[in-house]
Design goal:
By secondary structure, the chain is mainly α. It is built from ten helices and no strands.
Length: 300
């Protein structure tokens, strides 16, 4: 007779497993907090609306050629594009016999984009005599698509590709977000909120994998690439400081009526968007080492 081998029952989380669970859970909570804080300040307070509106008014300061150059980025974002991303992620994961990651990729893409549409539908933008654009646009749907695709690519990428994939995904997500701002579809807060939504789902999936005590296969373990971490850190610090300084300056001078003030506010908003993407990507890139590196099974 052929012996039937039963799959071992996962053991309760030990101290190491709890540490592995804590990190992604805290990151998910931080992402949710960023989403809530961004929505509260920039949607429901007059000061936040004035800052956002100043940056939005300065968005058309760039040359027309810049807008034309980035429009193709927005053309990529569509239902067929998301469907293609889902299929590609599943095929890549299944080809590597990473069954749970195939499902996780679908969950990340669908969960992030559904969350954005639900939040956008239920979040009101009160009339605080600060802006004429009263329709709520937070989070940005286009940016959520780009950021969730980038996060999914990072989720399924082998270790040696995680650095380049992280940087490429961040550039793509930022380009999409800045494009929506350049043609005045979205405010900077909408883009930052979209990054937070995508990051939240990435970290929730990482936390779920920690609970199931899934180990990573060989080739998917180890610390993130030093070059990618360094580059993202430098970008996050530089653009973050610039964004904060200009944001404070704008807050002290709203309502902004002069063209120069609007342009400065727009530059600060763009810097903040780049910083938000760099921070989110850096956190996602660093999360994988929390997985256990032993007892790997092909079904993980």
């Amino acid at each position: 007779m052929t012996a039937v081998t039963m799959a071992p029952t996962p053991a309760p989380l030990d101290a190491r497993g709890r540490r592995g669970l804590t990190a992604p859970l805290l990151a998910a909570l931080a992402s949710a907090a960023v989403l809530v804080a961004t929505a509260w300040f920039f949607v429901t307070t007059r000061l936040g609306q004035l800052i956002d509106d100043a940056a939005l008014s300065g968005a058309d300061a760039g040359p027309l050629t810049l807008t034309q150059a980035i429009l193709p980025v927005l053309d990529l974002v569509s239902v067929p594009f998301v469907a293609g991303a889902v299929v590609a992620a599943v095929v890549i994961a299944v080809a590597q016999r990473r069954w749970s990651i195939a499902g996780a990729a679908v969950l990340l893409l669908v969960g992030a984009n559904v969350t954005t549409q639900v939040v956008k539908a239920i979040l009101p933008r009160p009339d605080l005599d600060a802006t004429l654009a009263l329709a709520n646009s937070l989070p940005s749907g286009h940016t959520t698509v780009a950021a969730s695709v980038a996060a999914t690519a990072l989720l399924i990428a082998p270790q040696r590709w995680r650095g380049p994939v992280a940087i490429g995904g961040a550039v793509y997500a930022v380009a999409t977000g800045l494009a929506t701002m350049a043609i005045e579809w979205h405010r900077a807060s909408d883009v930052v909120a979209a990054f937070a939504v995508a990051a939240f789902w990435y970290f929730i999936i990482e936390a779920a994998r920690s609970v199931r005590r899934r180990s990573l296969p060989r080739g998917y373990r180890g610390a993130p690439g030093a070059n990618a971490v360094t580059l993202l850190s430098v970008v996050a610090v530089a653009t973050g400081l610039l964004g904060v300084v200009i944001g404070v300056f704008t807050a002290l001078n709203v309502p902004v009526y002069e063209r120069s003030g609007e342009v400065i506010a727009y530059v600060g908003a763009c810097s903040s968007v780049i910083a938000a993407s760099a921070v989110a990507t850096l956190a996602m890139l660093a999360m994988r080492p929390h997985h256990r590196a032993s007892s790997y099974s092909a079904g993980s």
